[in-house]
Amino acid sequence: MPGADKRAAAIFDVDGVRAAVTGAASGLGFAMAEVLALNGARVSLLDANESLLEAAVKELADQGAIVTGEILDVADPVAVDRAFAAIAERDGGLDAVFANAGISRGAGIIVEEGKVENADRDAYQQVIDVNLNGVLWTVQAAARIMRAQKHGRIIATASTAGLSTEAFCGYGYIAAKGGVVNLVRQAALDLARDNVLVNGIAPGPFYTRIGGPSGADPEVVEYWSSTVPLGRMAEPSELQGVVLLLAAPRASTFVTGAIIPVDGGTLIGPPISAFSRPTAGFVR
Asked: Torsions phi, psi of 69, nearest 5?
């Protein structure tokens, strides 16, 4: 963009962007909606939890943000289609969609009931319905709008659990997030010539309703922190810079099909403290 304003405020400007975020009432979804709305975007918050959604919309509206809220179960494809069509009609289009809604069910393989032969089938199906199918229904609904208007950004919440194994997670979560990674890549290829960019964010351990809220079980916090080279879990606000990067019309204009880890280094390997010191005779 020759001659364009090169200041960060211009490159990451989301003022007037028409955005929608699923799972927006708490955790990472609220952090996404918050950073967009407080920087001038018109944001639709969608969530299945009515009381949390009302509180989230009020919190942002009280700060002067332009926000609306709608109850939505992303596992219902008809409801997803209806919700996004209504948003696009009301706002005259849709520029950025965050397919973020997710749940966690089922024990990880570190306990007996989580091992593959014992994995709870009902829990598995519930997680697949929301975390994988719900992302597909959301991407479908967004794509119908964005392909027609020849521009848009779709961002799905994957996970480091979709890029690597994670013994603390159940089979449904692992399978769904792995599916989201390839769904993002396939949709990015599908929509590229229509100037619709599709990317994913892969969070590591965050303080959320899934990962564990602030002040959660100290053993859970200690476990997750032990897997992170930075030595701690993250706050949802630590995702917000990447949100602006992927949503702003002038930022990341040549990025599609990417899965961006926000994980404190989790995917590069266990912390150095996890390794015992080699013997004096160790030679490589």
From this structure: -130, 145
Average pLDDT of every residue of the chain: 93
Which amino acid type is present at position 179? G
Domain ranges of the chain: 13-261
Strand order in the sheet with 196-203: 66-71, 42-47, 18-22, 96-99, 152-157, 196-203, 259-262
Report how far residue 226's alpha carbon sits from residue 269's, in angstroms, rounded to the nearest whole number.
11
Active-site residue flag, 207:
no
- 1, pLDDT greater than 70: no
Sort residue 65 into left (φ over 0), alpha (ψ -120 to 50) or beta.
beta
pLDDT tens per residue, range 23-37: 999 999 999 999 999
Catalytic residue from among 124, 171, 173, 207: 173
Q: How far apart are CA 56 and CA 284, in angstroms?
A: 55
Structural Rg of the chain based on CA atoms:
19
pLDDT in tens, 57-80: 999 999 999 999 999 999 999 999
In which band, very low, low, confident or very high, does the pLDDT at 240 lie, cut at 50, 70 and 90? Answer: very high
> Which fold is adopted by the domain 13-261?
Rossmann fold (3.40.50)
Q: Mind spelling out the 3-state secondary structure of 14-60?
A: CCCCEEEEECCCCHHHHHHHHHHHCCCCEEEEEECCHHHHHHHHHHH
Using one digit for the tens of pLDDT, what is the confidence trace for 168-191? 899 999 999 999 999 999 999 999
